[in-house]
Each structure stands twice: as structure tokens, then as C-alpha cells.
Amino acid sequence: MGKTVVQKILARASGRNEVEVGDVVEPRVDLAMSHENAALVINQFLEIYEGTGLEAELWDPDRVAIIFDHRVPAESSKTATNQKKIRDFVAAHRIRRFHDIRGDVGGICHQILPERGYVRPGAVVVGTDSHTTSHGALGAFAFGIGATEMASVWALGSVLNVQVPATLRVQVEGTFPEGVGPKDLILEVIGTLTAEGANFRVLEFHGETIRNMSTSGRLVLCNMSVEAGATAGIVPGDTETERYLREEAGVTDPITPVLPDDDAEYDSVVDINVSKLGPQIACPHTVDNVKPIDQVAGRSINQVVIGSCTNGRLDDLAVAAKIMKGQKVAANTRMLIFPASARIFQQALAKGYVKTFMEAGAVVMNSGCGPCLGIHEGALGDGEVALSTTNRNFKGRMGNPKSEVYLCSPAVAAASAVAGTITDPRGEH
Amino acid sequence: MATVVYEIGDDISTDVIYPGRYMATVLPTETPQFAFADDPVLNGKLTAGQVPPGGVIVAGSNFGCGSSREQAVSTLKGYDLVIVAKSVARIFLQNAINLGLGVVMCPTIEANEGDELEIGATEVINRTSAARFPIVPLPKSRQAIIDAGGLIAYTRQRLVAGR
Description:
The complex is a heterodimer of chains A (429) and B (163).
Chain A: H1 5-13, E1 24-25, E2 31-34, H2 38-49, E3 64-67, H3 77-92, E4 97-99, H4 109-115, E5 124-127, E6 141-144, H5 147-156, E7 162-163, E8 166-173, H6 182-193, E9 201-206, H7 208-211, H8 215-225, E10 232-234, H9 239-248, E11 268-273, E12 280-282, E13 290-292, E14 303-307, H10 308-311, H11 314-324, E15 334-338, H12 342-350, H13 353-360, E16 363-364, E17 385-388, E18 404-407, H14 410-419
Parallel strand pairs in A: 2-3, 2-5, 3-4, 5-6, 8-9, 8-11, 9-10, 14-15, 14-17, 15-16, 17-18
Antiparallel strand pairs in A: 1-7, 12-13
Helix pairs in contact in A: 2-5, 6-8, 11-13, 11-14
Chain B: E1 2-7, H1 14-17, H2 40-47, E2 56-59, H3 71-77, E3 82-85, H4 90-99, E4 102-105, E5 116-119, E6 123-126, E7 131-134, H5 143-148, H6 151-161
Parallel strand pairs in B: 1-2, 2-3, 3-4
Antiparallel strand pairs in B: 1-5, 5-6, 6-7
Helix pairs in contact in B: 3-4
């Protein structure tokens, strides 16, 4: 029987000829990523070594990446002290893939890893962040783990006792209508599968729509695969993967895509045609509460957010800038924009998007996770409603359990910011 | 025997179990006060010491969905709670096993607050209603970690064995 992408990656990383679904393996890790929660990883890492007489040493500092993005700049002395502790650790252990709070090389971890060429097709990537699934967009097997599990990876270089997951094939055909894109597709998939429909399984994306999609769009699909419960999302590497890594990430060494066999065994297949897909909205308070925009259009919104590891990339900002050019953010609505990395921020400056946004009345913030997880900026007031291009709308997500968050594409967010209500970017259709 | 101290629904995310705004708190010993911080009833019971160790929260499907934040596990572990849920999200389940939080996957569980449960290896018996509910075994891959007393102990054994 043929093998899926994740079976092939796990076989290679575990030193086996092949693996079957359900096999227990111990894959070597190619990249281990953390953000500010490295403070907890460090604590657990040092605890592992207590009483052993061994010196606490990373298995390979060059395979460890730490990116500050969740609370940048620090919102409190406690966070600042955590960040300082991490900086000291980074220096002592010679971690070179460290991205501090900077306007040149800083940004959100799930943008930094792709744009700096840290992720390759066929790699095993773990991150102390559930949206580590993003990196499947480059043909890697990438999944989220907890801080203690990362401490174990730092010590041993492998993930202990991984069970080879089954794979669900998502076959996508057709061409997106104007005003509709990858975010609408993945919301449609999550609404169909439900929030736990892919739990303990991998989503493998195929079809002409995927082949024609940019890496930026593929990152949206894989990023939000976890919202269907998936362990990982994977787009098998192809010419676009190579183009992205060569042209945008500056990778010069060989790139070898890992492709599934033609007779690979899938748990099930989901077929979707996007040619007639409309904008989709995830309504409060679960990501699988997805409705076509017609059912929620007209809802008043207090805050619009464009950004995050899901939709803060240059093409997202381009879509929004095109809609907002010469327009104004509605009087009772505020709009916050967070480019996904400092590099994207600079590109958006050069292309005039930032000027467009500011002239429209939007506030353009530094790169980072921003209000997505309700930590330190852009919190909502009691009873307020947000419309956001981010990835979660759980109760309390934006810092207030008495508020509501709707999730949408950048096109919907921009059109809605101008109208002050949830608005279809296609106009009268 | 364990007492059901609270019932909670489907898709309880880690944002509900441990709101993101408390994530600067990293040490496991610091986290318990923020368990279900936005649920005044449950948080009130916990912080007031009204929940005995070993108390059971009965949950619906997809418990612990969302973020990988380990605080969502350490905060419950701090009260020695046991979670009996219809199903559990992957990262939360792994974190629970790694940290030694009691989690039982019981797809058909029916229990009310105050019920007495007997949690065995293969089934949960509700002694109050006299009903029995089968348990989905944990992934076999995780048994070695549980047997070692958690992932820190397990990794330590591996390091020492590998010197």
C-alpha cells in the first residue's frame, strides 16, 4: 500500500524504511521553535537535568529557533523579565535563530520561519504553539507541542513516542471568485469537518486550486488546520514551494519535496470546488460555527483587526489596501493592522499600503500577535464586537469574555471596516 | 470514588481554561489561581478551596481545544482535578500525560454534579445512577511516559541511560 506525506516524513526521520498508521516512532527533529513561552521551556529543561550530574545542553543549538511575538514590546515587567531570561539563555547556549523585538528581522514566528528559510519540505518541525501547523505549507510535518515536551526535545533532539497519524485528503478544484480566497476555503473546510473532525489526523491538501495557490495562501490553510483539530496540515512541496524558498527566503541548498504515493491510503477524502464559494464567517464562540456572509451581513462591529500568523502577509495587506484606498474607516469602528513580520511591514511601506491604511483612519501596529490572543493590546470592551482575520474566536479570546469575535478574510475585514458593519466585499452580487 | 464537582459543555478551549492574558505566569506553582478565570462560579469554588483533591470535572467533546499553552494543564493539575470528557483535543491530551493530569476519555459519559464516579481501567461507573460507560484507552505511545511518572522523569531516564 502506498504512503502519505506524513508517513514518508516520519519514516525518514525515524530511520525506518516505512511506517504504518498507528506505529509508534521517535522522529528526529529538524527545527524546534518557541516564542515567549521559552521561559517555561527553560524552566522544564533545567528541571530535567536536576540530580543527573549532567550539564544542561541543547542537543543542537542550530535547530532551535526562538521568536518574540506574543507580547511585543513587553506589556508588563513580568513579561520583560521573562524575555530578559530568554535572551540570557539564548546567549549562553549560542542559539543563532533568535528573533528579538526588532524592526528589521522581527515578526510573528509563523512568518519568520518561512521567510527566513528555516523550514524545508520533508522536515519535522515542532513548536510550542498550536499554529505550528502553518509550516506544512512548505511540505514539512509541523505540529504543536507543550513546553515540557519541547524541553524534552531540547535535551534529546527527538519527539518521544509519536503515533503515526492517519491522513485526510482535502481535494480542492476550481478558481476562486473575486473577493474570495484561501481564508474562506479553510473556514468552509472547518465548518464541514467541525472543530474536532480531524483530531489526531493530518489534512493533506491537493488539487488545481492548491497548485495555483501562493505559499502565502497555503500558510493560511495549514495554519488553521488545527482549528479542525488536525495534528498538522500539509501541502506537498512543488514548484511554488521551490520558488518561494529560492526567491523569497533566499535558500540556496538542495530542496527535495516529499510527495505521497498515488495509491496512498487516506482515512477519507473531502472534495471541494471553490468556483462558487462565497465569503465565509466564523461566528462566536467556536471556529467551526461557520456561516455564509449573507447570514451575518449588517452586524455592527466596533473593532476590525487585520493581521496575525493567519492573514497578516503582504497579499492580505494588498487586498485590504485596494478596498480601502480613498475610503475611511466608519465613525464608530476602529481598525488595527498588524503586518506579520518587520519585512512585510517594510514591503507594505514601500508599496504605499501603510499610507493608504493610515489615511483611511486605521492604526498600523508593530508586527506581533497583537490582540489575537487577548494579551496586551486591542482588548475589547464589554458587549463589543470584533471582526478579525485571525484564527480563533473562543470566548474571551480578545481579552474579554463579555465580547464577541467574528473571523473572516482580509477582503471582508476591509470592506466591513469602511461600512462599520459586516459587509460582503463583492458588493451587490 | 470521586465526586463530580462541575459539569461543562463541548469545545471548552484553553482560552476558557486559562485565559491568554495570564500567560506571562510561567511557573506551574503560580498558575492555579487562574483556572477558569472567566467562569466566576467554577473559579470561585476552586480558589475558595471548596473542591477536594481528586474532584472530577465532567466535560463534553473536544475538551482543551486551541492553544498549546501548558498552563491550561498545570492550572488544573494544581487542584489535583480529574477530567472525564467525551473527547479531548490532541495537544491538551499530550500535555496532560506529560504533566500527570488525570484525563479520562469517556465518549458516552453521563453524570451530574454531586454524582459519585468509580474510574476504572476500562470503564467509568456512575455509582449514583448505577450506569457504566466505557473508556477510550490512552494512545499506547504515551504509556511509557505515564509509567515513568511524567515526561520530565522519562526524559531524565533516557538522558542518564544514554550517557
